[in-house]
Write a structure and sequence with these properties.
Elements lengths: L2 H31 L10 H7 L16 H5 L4 E9 L2 E8 L4 E5 L10 H11 L7 E6 L17 E6 L6 E6 L5 E5 L1 H14 L4 H4 L2 H29 L17 H26 L14 H8 L24 E7 L2 E7 L5 E7 L2 E4 L5 H11 L4 E7 L18 E6 L6 E5 L4 E6 L1 H14 L4 H4 L2 H33 L5 H6 L9
Antiparallel strand pairs: 1-2, 1-8, 2-3, 4-5, 5-6, 6-7, 8-9, 9-10, 10-11, 12-13, 13-14, 14-15
């Protein structure tokens, strides 16, 4: 390696280290915190568990009786039914993400303010000494900027406890659902975890392009820092000492010596951590999405039936063997069926059978394959039931996915795989070669979550802690070296001293 190239590599590593050593330290600390973090946004199962079960004798009017729903029917993306404090209620989401609701007993449009939500808040804080209403919030706060709740804005917050030990619950003003729950520990883990890890603070996240630029540029610069560090670490290592007493690690001072040793030990995982962090942003849209393509989803659902063909939400619920907490309307092959949810995660499809609505068996493999092949120009090369998670269909923390599912491997140029849940017949996800590559280049390298480790949570936690602590110590040595170099740089050194450290500051033996 020529002296000029060496000089460039050293200077690039030095100045990027000055800028990013502290950022790397923050990344590794926050990465450990994210092992224990769960999102404050409630998932569907948590919301269904909070809903009161539908009374056995409850009656819902047909959806067509709601004027607001009928008016927007062609733009309705999702429709569900539940009870709110004893009253039957329909909730629906429009194509633009906005949620609306209407009462299923008199057809009136529903809205939820503090007075209407107070009984629900009392149920949420059951067992506590008291709670209070603490305001209305839009997206410009730390706990309400999440994309999944923006269609419910404004949110109403109720709190319990003192200022620093308070528990919070945010309810939708549009549907009355609980959406976000925070506690002192969850808020702390959020700030230590995703807050620090990828600048997940609302003034930044609400400016999507700014946030993407920050993550992309810091991750890209971090990749260069890691690569130049590996080059210098290998170059400065004495592979064949000329004398028996000569050190393989040439540096004698504590911080520089340990920066070199730990850098060699964790060079590869540090590089893969930061590179996979860059891949998480999917720069240049280099990886395809795992979402079902819009044309396929449209064909799978079929044409939208008239709203007058929809049954009331209570149809067929008496044929179930569990208490229903929520009912979803699902469209498949130009027809609707109902999906009933219990409070403990059970699901059951209700369909029309001989002019009667009743519980249905899961869709068979042959039925699902025939329906998919009727929509595509290609055939199904392989079908397999997944009774447990694998490396491409898996669940971790808030990323819950149902089992069993039918995996269909299509005989097409993209190598597409489809995953279908048989109880509801829902198309859950679609992967191609590129998205499966991203699973390893991002999730696999960043979260270290192959199914082998997810099946062994203690081992997974140990691996994350070990590599993160190694990266943290490497980053701390970088912070110390950067600080000492800055002190020397701005300490008004004499000419001789300035010349001595000009070429490779911080790399003296």
């Amino acid at each position: 390696m020529s002296r000029t190239i060496k000089r460039i590599v050293v200077l690039v590593h030095l100045y990027l280290g000055l800028l990013l050593s502290l950022v790397f330290a923050i990344w590794f600390v926050s990465g450990i915190a994210m092992v224990y973090y769960r999102t404050p946004v409630l998932d569907d199962n948590q919301k269904a568990a909070f809903e009161k079960p539908l009374p056995q004798q409850i009656t819902f009017e047909e959806p067509s009786s709601l004027a607001a729903l009928a008016t927007h029917w062609t733009a309705v993306d999702m429709l569900s039914a539940a009870v709110f404090e004893g009253r039957p209620l329909y909730r629906w989401r429009l194509d633009d993400g906005r949620w609306q609701a209407g009462w299923a007993d008199d057809g009136a449009r529903a809205g939820f303010g503090p007075e209407e939500l107070e009984p629900a808040a009392a149920r949420w804080f059951a067992g506590t000494d008291g709670f209070r209403y603490s305001g209305e919030f839009d997206e410009n706060t730390q706990w309400t900027f999440f994309r999944s709740v923006r269609g419910h804005l404004p949110l109403h917050r109720f709190t319990s406890g003192s200022a620093f030990l308070r528990e919070e619950i945010y309810f939708s003003s549009q549907t009355g659902e609980p959406l976000i729950s925070t506690t002192p520990s969850s808020r702390l883990l959020y700030f230590l975890g995703p807050g620090l890890h990828y600048a997940s603070f609302y003034p930044i996240r609400n400016r999507n392009q700014l946030w993407r630029d920050i993550v992309n540029w810091t991750s890209g610069a971090g990749v260069v820092l890691a690569v130049t560090g590996i080059i210098i670490g290998l170059w400065r290592f004495r592979w064949t000492p000329s004398q028996r007493s000569q050190r393989r690690i040439p540096f004698t001072r504590f911080w520089m010596r340990w920066h070199h040793i730990v850098g060699l030990a964790v060079a590869v995982p540090t590089f893969t951590f930061v590179l996979s962090g860059l891949f998480s942003m999917n720069p240049g849209a280099m990886f395809p999405s795992i979402a079902i393509s819009e044309p396929l989803m449209a064909d799978y659902r079929g044409s939208r039936p008239s709203i007058t063909s929809l049954p009331p939400a209570h149809a067929g619920l008496d044929s179930l063997d569990f208490r229903t907490h929520r009912v979803d309307y699902l469209q498949r092959d130009s027809a609707f069926h109902l999906l009933a949810h219990s409070g403990d995660g059970q699901r059951q499809r209700v369909g029309l059978d001989a002019d009667s609505w009743r519980a249905q068996l899961p869709f068979s493999q042959a039925t699902l394959i025939a329906h998919i092949e009727s929509l595509l120009d290609t055939g199904v090369a392989e079908a397999q039931w997944l009774e447990s998670y694998d490396n491409y269909y898996y669940s971790r923390k808030e990323r819950y996915r149902p089992l069993p599912v039918l995996r269909l491997i299509l005989d097409d140029a993209q190598g597409a795989w489809l995953y279908i849940e048989p109880t509801s017949g829902e198309l859950l996800r679609q992967t191609e070669r590129g998205s499966r590559a991203r699973r390893w280049l991002y999730n696999g390298l960043h979260s270290l979550d192959p199914q082998f480790l997810l099946d062994r949570p203690r081992l997974w936690t140990t691996v994350i802690w070990s590599l993160s602590l190694g990266g943290l110590f490497l980053s701390v040595t970088g912070v110390v070296l950067s600080w000492r170099w800055l002190k020397r740089r701005f300490a008004s050194p004499g000419p001789a001293r300035a010349r001595k450290h000009h070429f490779a500051p911080g790399l003296r033996t």
